[in-house]
């Protein structure tokens, strides 16, 4: 999910999205927390523990049924996840959270399991962005819904930020995703560099294998793609009022900071995983403040 302050992108526990922080208006902290715990628990069902793919899919189906019950204002007495669906049902009733956005998140988790089981890949960037449309973009749209922002421009900018955060998570985490059978590099980008999914099998935890230069170049190109998307969505920070706008500034800058760290590693995230730490806070705050006056220039694109 990048990592900046916590709620998004589906994998990595949505660590790239803000969850009910002190910057959020107090009256919105409960529904934001409810959305986060809904997504986080579904993420755990899809990824954690030793369950088989069939068992994970069955659990996600049961989870979807409980979401439908929550939309009806019910929490079944035999609920397996009352700590999730009790607060969520209250938030849906009070704030009208759209069911289709919450259901989209679950469909992305199902897709992760099915693609892993079937050794699936993403043909091109459009197909990967469709995954982001369901795995990450709904979170941004749910937050805009809570803030009462519904116009098409704001929604498109939110989608760009959330998709960028999801992509950043992918390019940050190949050392985690590849051993799990998750392959998020678009095949068209791989083909341009003579790479196939088979070339990536050697990268595993504690592996001594060095990634070929073509794989490093691939990371450089997709990092630029993610940066481009983030800059496309960044003007949204000026649309959200007060604390919400400042929260989003930090989310955007956190994602960009991860991209900078990937570049500092020479784009080799097969061997190391960059992360945001406490020492990054002053830089993030400084850049968030500067967003009020000007946008950071785009870095030069790497060779395609």
From TrEMBL:
<dbReference type="Pfam" id="PF00494">
    <property type="entry name" value="SQS_PSY"/>
</dbReference>
<dbReference type="GO" id="GO:0051996">
    <property type="term" value="F:squalene synthase [NAD(P)H] activity"/>
</dbReference>
<dbReference type="InterPro" id="IPR002060">
    <property type="entry name" value="Squ/phyt_synthse"/>
</dbReference>
<dbReference type="InterPro" id="IPR033904">
    <property type="entry name" value="Trans_IPPS_HH"/>
</dbReference>
<dbReference type="GO" id="GO:0004311">
    <property type="term" value="F:geranylgeranyl diphosphate synthase activity"/>
</dbReference>
<protein>
    <submittedName>
        <fullName>Squalene synthase HpnC</fullName>
        <ecNumber>2.5.1.21</ecNumber>
    </submittedName>
</protein>
<keyword id="KW-0808">Transferase</keyword>
<dbReference type="GO" id="GO:0016114">
    <property type="term" value="P:terpenoid biosynthetic process"/>
</dbReference>
<dbReference type="InterPro" id="IPR017827">
    <property type="entry name" value="HSQ_synthase_HpnC"/>
</dbReference>
<dbReference type="InterPro" id="IPR044843">
    <property type="entry name" value="Trans_IPPS_bact-type"/>
</dbReference>
<dbReference type="InterPro" id="IPR008949">
    <property type="entry name" value="Isoprenoid_synthase_dom_sf"/>
</dbReference>
